[in-house]
């Protein structure tokens, strides 16, 4: 291909290139041409010999991750495939600031996820919340596979893994450790299920979710999300359910749930 194309380029939040490190700052290069430190087409795609950009914003995550910054660029591809092009020279046109709109999912929340134990502690669990727990108990077993595969089919493995890692680093380990301290490690799978439900909610454009029946086009794991955003994290030890809340993940309700 020897035709100039428009593409998208992702860089670190401060503008520096993910791959080459502190050699190219795209934010400081808007309106200018940039080249790799040691251009070498022979090294091919996914190498330091070319600069990488993609036609579709979400394809840029092959080699990048969140948090990030995004740029509109143009150049003549010298190697690559449908997902990612390699360039010897790129013109940096502008920075794209609205990343939620650019990617089509909730980037701004993925980098700053809701932590249920940092919300006001629930001291009394009401009937509505118990109904949400009942609904969650009926679908929670399928959430991991459903969200994992549905998000992959929608935006690809690289986006899914980047969002999972971002949310995981911010809340999964913290929530899990707090719940373990409260009731033990046997509930880890149920904690992870709530995290997956939260991850899935960051992709509102997905309407078909795998491995779970849902008829109204809504989010099938909404009950788990609603509990999470009310400051309640469910756990299940194989016999009883619990709801945890507050900075120490206190058990604020426990008992049997009919599915």
What layout of secondary structure does this protein have?
Elements (H helix, E strand, L loop, with lengths): L4 E7 L4 E2 L3 E5 L7 E2 L16 E3 L15 E12 L4 E12 L2 H5 L3 H4 L16 H13 L3 H13 L1 H27 L4 H14 L20 H8 L3 E4 L4 E5 L4 E6 L4
Antiparallel strand pairs: 1-6, 2-3, 4-7, 5-7, 6-7, 8-9, 9-10
Helix pairs in contact: 3-7, 4-5, 4-6, 5-6, 6-7
How would you characterize this protein structure?
The protein is of the alpha+beta class. The chain has two domains: 5-103, no CATH class; 108-255, no CATH class. The chain is built from seven helices and ten strands. It has helices spanning 99-103, 107-110, 127-139, 143-155, 157-183, 188-201, 222-229, and strands spanning 5-11, 16-17, 21-25, 33-34, 51-53, 69-80, 85-96, 233-236, 241-245, 250-255. The strands form three sheets. Strands 1, 4, 5, 6 and 7 form a five-stranded antiparallel beta sheet that branches. Strand 2 (16-17) and strand 3 form a beta hairpin. Helix 3 (127-139) packs across helix 7. It is elongated, with a radius of gyration of 22 Å.
